[in-house]
C-alpha cells in the first residue's frame, strides 16, 4: 500500500503516513482519471502545502453544497409559494421557507414560549423541534429582514439558513478529515456524497450532524469530556446522537475504559441539561412538544411500516410498539457483536450501525436523514464502491418521494403511484441494509476492514485504540485478546 509521509518545516517526519484513496481503492483510482489521475505533485500532504487534504475537502464540500442550492432554484423562484405541486415535480422541496410562517418566525413568536395560532400551525401549537435546533431557527429569523412581502422574506430566510448550514457542512467535513490522522482523504466521501448535497437544505439536520462529528473527533483525540459535551449538544439539536453512547459503553466495558466513558457521559448529560432546563422550567408545554409529537406520530413517509401498511391494507396502529421492539432486538444483536467479535470493533463502526438500525426501524424516514449516516459511513466503511451503491439508493429514494407527492397532490396522475413509491422505500431500505452488512462483516472478520490493513486497531477510537480487552465473550474473542495483550505488552 502506497503512503505519503507528512513532514514538518525541518523536513523530519512528525506525523503518520497519509493514505491516498487512489492508492488502495480501485474505484477511487479509476475515478481519479477524470481529474488527472492518481495522487501527484500538486496533491501535497505536507503541512506547509496549500493543497493539503483538509483544504481540498472543504472546497469540494462547499462546491457540492452550492450545487445542492442550485438544484433548489426552481422552488426559490416560485415553487415554494405559488404551486404546491411544483416543489414536488421539480424535487426541490424544503421545510425551511414553509416553517418560517407556519411556526411563527415571520410573526416574531418566540419558540416554545409563544403558542402558535392553529390557523397558522395547523394545530401543532408549539415548535416540534428540540431546543438547540429551535435556537438555530430563531437566530436565522433575527437576520431575516421584516417587511410586508412574505414571499421575499421566506426566500431570504431560506438563504440565511443555507449559509448557516453551509458552515455546518464544512465543519462536518473538517471533523471527519481530522478524525483518522492517516486517512484524511476518506472525508471526500462526505464532501462528494450526492444525497447529502440534495438534502442539505431540506431541514436543519446538519446542525446535529456537525456537532456529533466534532464530538467524535474529540473522542478520537482522547478528550472524553469535550466529546461528551458535543454529543450532548448534538442530542439537544436532534435525538439520534444520544444513541452512540450505548455502543460506546460496551466498547469501554470491553476495553476497561469505564472512567473515560463516565467522563463522556457526564459531559453529555450536563450539556444537554444546560440547553434544555431553562426552557423546561419556563416553557414546559412548548418544550415537551417535540417528545410528545415523536411518540404520538403515526407511520409516515419512507418507513418500512408505511410500505407494509400500503401493501397489506393494515393501518398498523401498533407501529410504535413494533418499531421499539425491533430497534431493541437490533440493539441486542449489536451488543452481542461488540462483546463476541474476535477483535474489538471500531467505535465508528458501531456508531454507524446503531444509528442505521434506528433509521431502518423508525416510523418515518425523511430524505434528509441520510445526512445522519454520511460522516459515519465514511469512517466506518471507507470503500467507494459500497458508499456509492448506498448513495445511489438514497438518490433514488429522494426522487421517489417527491414524484409520489407530485402524483398525490397534482390531480393529473403525473408522478409515481403508490406501488412505485413503495419500491423506492424498498430501495432505500436495501441500500442501507447492504452497507450495514458490509460494516458488520468488517467487524466480525477484521481482515476485510480496510482501515486495519496496516495493523491498526481503532485509530479513531481515542483511548480504545490499542487497549487490550478486559471483558470479552466467546472463545475466539478471548483467544484474539490474549494474542493482542501479548503484543501490547511486548511493545
UniProtKB/TrEMBL annotation:
<feature type="transmembrane region" description="Helical">
    <location>
        <begin position="156"/>
        <end position="177"/>
    </location>
</feature>
<feature type="transmembrane region" description="Helical">
    <location>
        <begin position="189"/>
        <end position="219"/>
    </location>
</feature>
<feature type="region of interest" description="Disordered">
    <location>
        <begin position="1"/>
        <end position="33"/>
    </location>
</feature>
<dbReference type="Pfam" id="PF09594">
    <property type="entry name" value="GT87"/>
</dbReference>
<feature type="transmembrane region" description="Helical">
    <location>
        <begin position="347"/>
        <end position="366"/>
    </location>
</feature>
<keyword id="KW-0472">Membrane</keyword>
<dbReference type="InterPro" id="IPR018584">
    <property type="entry name" value="GT87"/>
</dbReference>
<feature type="transmembrane region" description="Helical">
    <location>
        <begin position="320"/>
        <end position="341"/>
    </location>
</feature>
<feature type="transmembrane region" description="Helical">
    <location>
        <begin position="50"/>
        <end position="70"/>
    </location>
</feature>
<protein>
    <submittedName>
        <fullName>Glycosyltransferase 87 family protein</fullName>
    </submittedName>
</protein>
<keyword id="KW-0812">Transmembrane</keyword>
<keyword id="KW-1003">Cell membrane</keyword>
<feature type="transmembrane region" description="Helical">
    <location>
        <begin position="387"/>
        <end position="407"/>
    </location>
</feature>
<dbReference type="InterPro" id="IPR016570">
    <property type="entry name" value="UCP010361"/>
</dbReference>
<feature type="transmembrane region" description="Helical">
    <location>
        <begin position="225"/>
        <end position="252"/>
    </location>
</feature>
<keyword id="KW-0808">Transferase</keyword>
<feature type="transmembrane region" description="Helical">
    <location>
        <begin position="264"/>
        <end position="284"/>
    </location>
</feature>
<feature type="compositionally biased region" description="Low complexity">
    <location>
        <begin position="12"/>
        <end position="28"/>
    </location>
</feature>
<keyword id="KW-1133">Transmembrane helix</keyword>
<comment type="similarity">
    <text>Belongs to the glycosyltransferase 87 family.</text>
</comment>
<feature type="transmembrane region" description="Helical">
    <location>
        <begin position="419"/>
        <end position="440"/>
    </location>
</feature>
Amino acid at each position: 500500500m502506497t503512503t505519503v509521509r507528512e513532514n514538518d518545516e525541518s523536513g523530519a517526519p512528525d506525523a503518520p503516513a497519509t493514505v491516498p484513496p487512489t492508492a488502495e481503492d480501485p474505484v477511487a483510482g479509476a475515478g481519479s482519471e477524470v481529474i488527472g489521475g492518481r495522487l501527484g505533485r500538486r496533491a501535497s500532504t505536507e503541512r506547509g502545502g496549500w493543497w493539503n487534504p483538509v483544504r481540498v475537502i472543504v472546497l469540494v464540500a462547499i462546491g457540492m453544497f452550492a450545487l445542492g442550492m442550485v438544484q433548489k432554484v426552481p422552488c426559490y423562484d416560485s415553487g415554494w409559494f405559488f404551486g404546491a405541486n411544483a416543489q414536488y415535480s421539480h424535487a426541490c422541496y424544503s421545510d425551511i421557507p414553509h416553517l418560517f410562517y407556519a411556526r411563527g418566525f415571520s410573526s416574531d413568536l418566540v419558540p416554545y414560549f409563544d403558542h402558535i395560532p392553529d390557523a397558522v400551525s395547523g394545530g401543532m401549537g408549539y415548535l416540534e423541534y428540540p431546543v438547540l435546533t429551535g435556537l438555530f431557527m430563531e437566530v436565522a429569523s433575527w437576520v431575516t429582514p421584516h417587511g410586508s412581502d412574505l414571499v421575499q422574506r421566506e426566500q431570504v430566510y431560506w438563504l440565511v439558513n443555507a449559509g448557516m448550514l453551509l458552515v455546518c457542512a464544512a465543519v462536518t467535513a473538517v471533523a471527519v478529515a481530522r478524525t483518522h490522522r492517516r486517512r484524511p482523504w476518506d472525508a471526500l466521501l462526505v464532501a462528494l456524497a450526492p444525497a447529502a448535497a440534495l438534502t442539505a437544505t431540506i431541514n436543519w439536520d446538519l446542525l446535529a450532524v456537525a456537532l456529533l462529528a466534532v464530538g467524535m473527533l474529540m473522542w478520537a483525540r482522547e478528550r472524553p469530556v469535550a466529546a461528551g459535551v458535543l454529543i450532548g449538544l448534538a442530542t439537544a439539536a436532534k435525538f439520534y446522537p444520544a444513541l452512540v453512547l450505548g455502543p460506546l459503553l460496551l466498547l469501554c466495558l470491553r476495553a476497561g475504559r469505564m472512567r473515560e466513558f463516565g467522563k463522556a457521559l457526564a459531559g453529555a448529560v450536563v450539556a444537554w441539561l444546560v440547553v434544555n432546563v431553562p426552557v423546561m422550567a419556563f416553557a414546559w408545554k412548548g418544550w415537551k412538544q417535540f417528545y410528545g409529537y415523536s411518540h404520538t406520530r403515526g407511520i409516515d413517509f419512507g418507513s418500512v411500516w408505511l410500505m407494509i401498511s400500503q401493501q397489506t391494507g393494515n393501518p398498523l396502529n401498533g407501529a410504535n410498539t413494533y418499531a421499539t421492539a425491533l430497534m431493541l432486538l437490533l440493539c441486542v444483536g449489536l451488543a452481542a457483536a461488540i462483546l463476541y467479535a474476535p477483535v474489538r470493533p471500531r467505535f465508528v463502526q458501531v456508531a454507524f450501525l446503531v444509528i442505521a438500525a434506528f433509521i431502518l426501524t423508525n416510523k418515518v424516514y425523511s430524505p434528509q436523514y441520510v445526512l445522519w449516516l454520511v460522516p459515519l459511513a465514511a469512517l466506518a466503511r471507507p470503500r467507494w464502491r459500497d458508499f456509492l451503491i448506498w448513495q445511489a439508493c438514497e438518490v433514488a429514494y429522494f426522487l421517489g418521494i417527491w414524484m409520489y407527492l407530485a402524483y398525490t397532490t397534482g390531480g393529473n396522475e403525473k408522478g409515481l403511484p403508490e406501488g412505485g413509491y413503495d419500491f423506492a422505500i424498498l430501495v432505500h431500505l436495501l441500500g442501507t441494509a447492504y452497507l450495514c452488512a458490509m460494516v458488520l462483516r468488517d467487524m466480525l472478520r477484521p481482515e476485510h476492514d480496510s482501515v486495519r490493513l496496516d495493523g491498526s486497531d481503532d485509530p479513531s477510537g481515542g483511548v480504545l485504540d490499542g487497549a487490550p480487552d478486559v471483558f470479552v465473550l466467546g472463545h475466539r474473542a478471548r483467544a484474539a485478546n490474549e494474542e493482542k495483550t501479548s503484543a501490547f505488552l511486548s511493545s
